Each structure stands twice: as structure tokens, then as C-alpha cells.
Amino acid sequence: MRGFQWGYWETPGGNWVWPPNRGDLFYLAYAPWPQGTCASFAELDQRLLTNEDLVENVYATIYADPRIPKKDKEQLQVNAQNQRVTLRGIVKNRRSKVFAYTDAFQTPGVADVENQIVIALTPSPANFE
User: Fold this and answer.
1) Which of 35, 46, 99, 106 is 20 to 30 Å from the Cα of 67, by its Cα?
2) Each residue of 17-50: pLDDT tens digit?
3) Which helix H or strand E contains 19, and what residues bound it?
4) Residues 30 and 54 placed together within one structural domain of the fold
5) 84 is a domain residue
6) Are 62 and 95 contained in the same domain?
7) Within a domain: residue 74?
8) Residues 115, 69: one domain?
9) Cα 129 to the center of its chain, rounded Å
10) 71-128, pLDDT tens digit by residue?
């Protein structure tokens, strides 16, 4: 792997042009090794993610979701090992468990999610009569 070169791709289809001679070209990274494409950089980044990076990305995805209440977000713990994420914590909202699971699963680099989130049952007044 020789690294990558910066260059220009034509908008429809992609002919490599250097030096740029047209104004309607946009700037993208180009991978010069034989099996490489521009999409290979995203795959390479995912393979280079450490467990700490993965945990940080999952937390960022969960905290960016407006459907999960802030109190439930603060109760969650995320652990990662070999692209497998484990979610733990106690949430009050039933939907928070599902949304946290889907957010973690949709985070780039995550291969599997184990959902150990528990829903806290609030006592009803009928239980105390």
C-alpha cells in the first residue's frame, strides 16, 4: 500500500483528471493501490478503530438521539470488545432501551450488540393499598 493521493474526480462516473482543468470537478481522496477505491478508506478506518474509539462513537450516537431522555442517557454504560458492544444500565422509559440498541447497532464499526439494559419498574399506588 503506497498511501493515497489527493486529486479530482469528474462528477458523473469518475475519470481521474490531474491537473484539474475544469471548474465542475470536486475534490476527493484517491486510493492508488490495486484493490482500493475511495470507499476503502472508510473500511480501513473501521478496521483501525480501537475499543475505546468504538465506545466513544457509540456514546456520541446515543447522546445525539433526541428520542432518548437525558436521564436515561446518563444511566447507560457501554463496553466494547472486538467490535462487539455491550449496553448496560437502568432506564425508566421502555423506548429508551430499543432506541439505544438501534443507535449502537447503527454506529460504524459495530458488528454485534448485546443489550443488557433493564427497565426500571416504578411502583404504582395500587401496590401500596
Assistant:
1) 46
2) 555 555 444 444 444 444 555 555 566 666 678 8
3) none
4) no
5) yes
6) yes
7) yes
8) yes
9) 47
10) 999 999 999 998 899 999 999 989 999 999 999 999 988 889 999 999 998 765 554 5
